[in-house]
Specification:
The complex is a heterodimer of chains A (about 110) and B (about 110).
Chain A: E1 4-7, E2 10-13, E3 19-25, E4 31-38, E5 42-49, E6 56-57, E7 64-68, E8 74-78, E9 87-94, E10 103-104, E11 108-112
Parallel strand pairs in A: 2-11
Antiparallel strand pairs in A: 1-3, 3-8, 4-5, 4-9, 5-6, 7-8, 9-10, 9-11
Chain B: E1 4-7, E2 10-14, E3 19-25, E4 30-38, E5 44-51, E6 56-59, E7 62-67, E8 72-77, E9 86-94, E10 99-101, E11 105-110
Parallel strand pairs in B: 2-11
Antiparallel strand pairs in B: 1-3, 3-8, 4-5, 4-9, 6-7, 7-8, 9-10, 9-11
Classes of the chains: A mainly beta (about 110), B mainly beta (about 110).
Chain lengths: ~110, ~110
């Protein structure tokens, strides 16, 4: 099992450019999450998907869109990147039961110039 | 809104020492609390998950406790080793499907 995979690992964008971060999991988990991690801020939830076909906003959703393509894949899109979106982005997944832990991908380091 | 705090932000100890990392949260209405380890430039690795109805969980040299009423959790690491050097994060799952993370404690174990 690969667990949670993310592509790309690194990306540099110019202000105003768009891009999509990809996430996939092979654990048959129902719930998937997108976080950003910034120095001194901890991880903050951007969007989550409790099950295939549903998405909900987290703590910091502005400037982002998501798509739960199927049970395995959950993508994060930046339509018009801004320097404030420079961050490390993590995808996570979890079985939908209340008692289960989150598993994280390796992250995508995004720099917006 | 749930606020999660981890103190200290950084800790340095000699090898072999037992140590305690702290995590506090403001809203006691949680489903569970999870401790993670993060190595530099890497993702998060789950260490322990404590349900709201539990008092503690153990895995090897690690023991995590939870006092929901006081909004506190501790991660106890016994006989620390240089390989334990990493950042340790706690996260609480609040009502709904939202998770809130602390900013972490950076641990250095000196050989």
């Amino acid at each position: 099992n690969a667990g949670v995979t993310q592509t790309p690992k690194f990306q540099v964008l110019k202000t105003g450019q768009s891009m999509t971060l990809q996430c996939a999991q092979d654990m048959n988990h129902n719930s998937m999450y997108w976080y950003r991690q910034d120095p001194g801020m901890g991880l903050r939830l951007i969007y989550y998907s409790a099950s295939e076909g549903t998405t909900d906003k987290g703590e910091v959703p502005n400037g982002y869109n998501v798509s739960r393509l199927n049970k395995r894949e959950f993508s994060l899109r930046l339509e018009s990147a801004a320097p404030s979106q420079t961050s490390v982005y993590f995808c996570a997944s979890r079985d939908g039961s209340s008692y289960n832990e989150q598993f994280f991908g390796p992250g995508t380091r995004l720099t917006v110039l | 809104k749930q606020e999660v705090t981890q103190i200290p932000a950084a800790l340095s100890v000699p090898e072999g020492e037992n140590l305690v990392l702290n995590c506090s949260f403001t809203d006691s209405a949680i489903y569970n609390l999870q401790w993670f380890r993060q190595d530099p430039g890497k993702g998060l690795t789950s260490l322990l998950l404590i349900q709201s109805s539990q008092r503690e969980q153990t895995s090897g040299r690690l023991n995590a406790s939870l006092d929901k009423s006081s909004g506190r959790s501790t991660l106890y690491i016994a006989a620390s080793q240089p390989g334990d050097s990493a950042t340790y994060l706690c996260a609480v799952r609040s009502v709904g499907n939202q998770f809130y993370f602390g900013t972490g404690t950076s641990l250095t174990v000196i050989p």
